[in-house]
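Recap from last week: sequence in, structure out.
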Amino acid sequence: MIGKSYEIGAKAELFDGGLNAQVAIFDMEQDNVAVRDGTLLVPGGDNEYAYRGQKGITSKGIEVELSGEVRPGWNLFVGASALRLRDADGERIDTANPTQTIKIATTYNLPGQWEQWTVGGGLRWQNQTWTDVGIGNNTYRVRQGSYAVVDVMARYDINDQWSAQLNVNNLFDKSYYNTPYEQITYGQPRNAMLTLVSRF
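Predicted structure tokens:
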């Protein structure tokens, strides 16, 4: 794979250095990029899809990130990205991966008499994806619409050495495909984990 790329970025500090912000914009042109060749399989392979080198692939995008302590005890992370990936004819490629994503995560250490508690949550969002799957002599297009998954957590500091934390992932039990590509699998359903941590 050969090509050329251009990238420009910027960083800044907000709230007296408590919050860091950065943005990056990129533009790439590539040749001989491995692209899945429809539903064709590798001859003699174990049902592996065939790939071919393709010229004139362009990728343009932007990534934005905010992270840090917004206020005492309140930590925040926000990340977003947008990508435009096209072949020489202007058609979208690598459709099994999202072109737009947003991630938000936050924790808050409660004040006063509740200071032993930290609560938080996160959200993961992506736009729609799709892929073509060959079954026998037929080809089926599997689509995954845009979706968001919410996670939450709570931690209790028992003392300076011990803490207990409860994580609940996929709080609303969202049903979605986990990156539809070659094999179609569902993402994890709602699940919870309770952990006890000791610090030495």
